[in-house]
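Crash report, auto-generated. Payload:
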Amino acid sequence: MVKDLNPYFSMNKLRLRIARMIASGGEGHIPSSFSIVDLIYSVYAFGLRDRTHFKDRFVLSKGHGAAALYVVLAEFEVIPWALIDNYGKPGSVLGGHPDRSKIPGVEANTGSLGHGLPFAVGVALANKIKNLDERIFCLVGDGECQEGTIWESANIATNQHLGRLVAIVDWNGSAAQLQPIENLKAKWTAFGWDVLECNGNSLESIKSAIGGLDFDSTSPKVILAKTTKGFGVSFLQGHGEWHHKIPNEEQMQLLERELSI
Amino acid sequence: MSLRKIFAKTVTATAQKDPRLVVIVGDISHGIFRDMRELHPERYFNIGISEPAMVNVAAGLTAEGLIPVVHTIAPFLIERSYEQIKLDFAYQELGVNLISVGSAFDYAKLGCSHHCYSDYSLMAKFEKANILFPGSDIEFQVLFESIYDNGEINYFRLTEFPHQTQFEESQIEFGKGITVAEGTDLTIATTGASLQIVETAAAALRESGVSVEVLYFHTLKPFDYHLLKESVRKSRKLISVEEIDQQDGLYNLALRAIAGDFKFESKQLAIKDFIRIYGTYKELSEEAGLTPNAIIEAAQNLLN
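Recovered output after restart:
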């Protein structure tokens, strides 16, 4: 069911792509993208069946991590790397948040938090109406779980028995430094979702969680993925000034050194 | 039959023919959708009290090729869920049929939480949205059937107080106004339920020898600019009567239609602010200044 992991593949390669893309384009959220890139890569590598024809879907609800989605789409040859190189330049189809009308593989225009999950609920509901077995994955942030529509959707998905819907929470602790919304496991369980947990910055751990999804159950599923914001580069980690900062040349050198394979 | 019942009947009949049509309601009108629920339980959903998510979920349905009809009370469907309409439909260029009841102050005794005067204004911001205020059964039926599957954002405001003017099916065309009565002294333009008070006022004005032209617009967007402009070019006097926030609506459309091409005198009868009293629909109409007498008074001022 779950595809084999390439032991030689290093996620640092994609992190480097993200950093260079954001530095040259002059826009983006590097730490958020580093937090989720392992998760998105894993959804494409181990979760989606027939990803070139978009049988199964992936919705990025926390749209500001778009750079991570873009490099994964390029890595899986859904979009050409030339689009990544052109990011932020005139005529670019890639923006700071994703646009479904411009980019293959993008299911929803997200950016304002709390929109992607209910959209994914609609996609899952449509596939249920049509008697299709498509799996719908949707990545939300733990900070995003402060939005009311996340819990409105959680309730709708349970009541509509959307067993092919999989939410993944990028639990990087954003909420904790705002209005803490901890004990996420108890919350999702109380809403009737099957809860799995993993280390969201470890491909092996994420792969194992995806492999453990029980699609015979009619309950929607959530993978609570513990992550580190800015994972991979020491000085990017945490919730400080780097959230929406563009590295200069010197900082890029330090960053590249830490990510050197 | 109430407009709401005709809505349920029309949508259910359309769903019989079109397997793409899905009905989503927000804890309202379940009774009248009994047939839909029994015939197509897999395409009827009462999403409950989660209006923004309800609208957002509908966008996911559209993205998968279905045609959602989303229905609840106007303030919750349009004002509360506005960001969902903006981002999940307008920005993503996805279509939907949004159908409200309870606007503008139909729930007269429930207070301002259940009023909605700004639905037109908000929906008009979207270039690709269509806005319809059908004031009678036949209008809803003809207009819904002609546009529900156009892939655009269609907003229908259903009134609980339909006007009593009978239109023929052949008179009703999406995007076109209707000349209810011809006249040369004064143009009265109106939309939706307000045709009722306009007809009463026009009859009285005619009695006193005024030649009144009555124009009725079930579709406010796209707007029939030509019809309104040519009427006012002739009469040079315009009264607009509408259950819409005075910052927007028919009066603004008239200014756009005429666009300074000729001089005319005018009076806008619209909603100025929260209508804070409780009472019947008629009593709130009086409080808002939307009455036959207010129209007659405005006409006398313009004609003197």
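Post-recovery validation: Chain A has one domain: 11-238.
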